[in-house]
Amino acid sequence: MSEQEILRPLPQLDDIDLTLVRLLRDDARMSNARLAEEVGIAASTCLTRVRSLIERGVVRGFHAELNPRALGLGLEALISVNIRVGARRAIAQFSDEMRQLPEVVQVFFLGGSEDFILHVASRDSDHIRQFVVDNLSAHPSVASTRTSLVFEHHTPGLSVRG
């Protein structure tokens, strides 16, 4: 991280910004006209505000939430990964490699007892086992893994103050 990124002030958000963020979090497909109506501002002002939230990094993107089961991926797991001590320089490469794998839903780089947690979606337990064997156990940077199956997964969204 550069010094400029470290020293960059946090974005200041007023009540209108917070309302826009809350509405977009709940329905990212909401039209600009409806957003403006909900907030009580002109459509042109709303568009300027949303663009500003994007430019300031408050809103990082607009995504579709996919149902893994509907895609034939009925089993999800969280896999804790520890990187070998001698492979610490390969952390960024490992993270990049994992994000490229089709089974990987999310990659978390951690501070604590594990180095990474991978959220993966698969067809079944055999698919999970094969993923671990092929992509983790055989990986030269990986010291150990621990797999936990996900029984339920709820995504409530980030709480917005205000």
Keywords:
162 residues, alpha+beta, Arc Repressor Mutant, subunit A, Alpha-Beta Plaits, 2 domains, 6 helices, elongated
Distance between the termini: 30 Å
Q: How would you classify the helix and strand content by structural class?
A: alpha+beta
In percent, how much strand structure appears in the residues? Answer: 15-25%
Strand order of the largest sheet: 2-3-1-4
Write the CATH homologous superfamily of the largest domain. Answer: Lrp/AsnC effector binding domain/regulation of amino acid metabolism (RAM) domain
CATH architecture of the largest domain: 2-Layer Sandwich
Q: Radius of gyration in whole Å, from Cα?
A: 20 Å
Average pLDDT number: 90
Sheet having the most strands: 4 strands, antiparallel
Overall spatial form: elongated
In DSSP terms (H or I, runs of 4 or more residues), the helix count works out at 6
How would you describe what is shown here?
It is a single chain. Strands 2-3-1-4 form a four-stranded antiparallel β-sheet, covered by helices on one side. The radius of gyration is 20 Å and the shape is elongated. Helix content is 37%, strand content 19%. The model has no long low-confidence stretch (mean pLDDT 90). A hairpin with a 6-residue loop joins strand 2 (104-109) and strand 3 (116-122). The chain is an alpha+beta fold.
Secondary structure layout plus pairing:
Elements: H1 3-7, H2 15-26, H3 32-39, H4 43-55, E1 75-83, H5 91-99, E2 104-109, E3 116-122, H6 125-137, E4 142-150
Antiparallel strand pairs: 1-3, 1-4, 2-3
Helix pairs in contact: 3-4
